[in-house]
Amino acid sequence: MRVLSGIQTSGKLHIGNYFGAMRQYLALQEKGEECFYFLANYHSLTSVRSGAELRDYTLEVARGFLAVGLDPVKSLLFRQSDVPEVTELAWILSCLTPMALLQKCVSYKDKVAQGLSPNHGLFAYPVLQAADILMFSSHLVPVGQDQKQHVEVTRDIAMKFNNAYGEILTLPEPYILSTVAVVPGLDGRKMSKSYGNTLELFEPAGAMKKKVMRIQTDSTPVEQPKDPDKCILFALLTLVASEEELAEWRERYTQGGMGYGEVKKRLVELLNELLDPFRARYEELVKDPDYVEDVLRSGGQKARAIGQELMEKVRSATGIVRSNITN
Ligand code: ADP
Ligand code: TRP
Question: Confidence class of residue 327 from pLDDT cuts 50, 70 and 90?
Fold first, then answer.
């Protein structure tokens, strides 16, 4: 089973990305699936307007994947732009994509509502995503609920292509990462780099502690019972505490006699237990950019070779002729 997913390189990774996506990508790797994970830097051009920033974020997300456990021997890690044919495929697919299909996409509307510029790239974003997925004949696409529609659009586009040109593209299935509910940010909204409410995956322990200590809680006095299901701290605790420990905290919330300061302290401890090894590995990778670059280059070469095979078929079926050039 070929698994493929991408993460935009438009900011620093946060624990929402880890629990909501990356941890589950790694589980698929450990299950022995053939995994392709890539840095969606072309997609990130829809929101990042500085070349230096895009370069930094791309490297940062690559380090992030490696630091949390992506094993380049087992999985392919690559930059989207190292397979430039993906933009060619996106164009070919866009000629088969009905406007109405894209007009239905809620992610475009959400992003415009958040203040992103309503340009053609943002509108055509799902077609580029379809090209990413179809280029490698992916079977399974692990994504959050918000991206399910884009995988459905991909299936629709692939069907249109196959109807017109023959059975060349593989129809993917979404694999919805729903075991973890949305991770809340410091202000209780969804943790997101666009809201500036994140706990970064690789920030120093001291900085993270300060942020946790400053999380706003309600003003229920220590003696009184509290509702764990309305508490950001408890929601964060569910990510890192064992089931037994969580059950104990639930008791303590509902019984009363517990202050939020205690929960914060334990939350920081548990976060550090999980994150310390990631931070250490991340720091090693900061010192070794050549290694990260080697991984990306070799992943990109392998991915591109696979993509080029598909593109041969696509060009031949669609009647696109090229001179015999190698690049
Ligand atoms: P952001 O909202 O910070 O821009 P992205 O949209 O780049 O994050 O998300 C990358 C991946 O991380 C997606 O698969 C998404 O579902 C997951 N993800 C992001 N934020 C959260 C969150 N708060 N809770 C759970 N998963 C999340
Ligand atoms: N749109 C995805 C997101 O914002 C990122 C992405 C780009 C992607 N191409 C992809 C995810 C292909 C899965 C498959 O999270």
Answer: low
Instruction: Pick the ligand that lies closest to the CA of residue 25.
Output: 1
CA distance 251 to 312: 62
Write out pLDDT tens, residues 268-284. 999 999 999 999 999 99
79 lines ligand 1 (CB under 6 A): no
CB 221 within 8 A of CB 227: no
CA gap 118, 125 in Å, rounded: 11
Residue 125 confidence (pLDDT) above 90: yes
Q: Which atom of ligand 2 is nearest to the CA of 8?
A: 5
Q: Is 307 in the pocket of ligand 2 (CB under 6 A)?
A: no
Q: Is the CB of 151 under 6 A from ligand 1?
A: no
Question: Is 2-182+289-318 assigned to CATH 3.40.50.620?
Answer: yes
Cβ(21) – ligand 2 distance below 6 Å: no
| pTM greater than 0.90 (yes/no) | yes
The amino acid present at 327, given as its one-letter code, is N
Q: Which residues contact 99 (CB under 8 A, 6 or more apart)?
A: none
Q: How close is the Cα of 20 to the center of ligand 1, in Å?
A: 6
pLDDT digits (tens, 9 = 90+) for 144-197: 888 999 999 999 999 999 999 999 999 999 998 866 668 999 999 989 988 899
Pick the CATH number of 202-284 from 1.10.240.10, 3.40.50.720, 1.10.3720.10, 3.40.50.2000: 1.10.240.10
Please report, for the chain, the start and end positions of each structural domain, with discontinuous segments joined by +: 2-182+289-318, 202-284
User: In Å, what is the CA distance from 140 to each residue of 2, 5, 85, 297, 307?
Assistant: 6, 9, 21, 24, 17
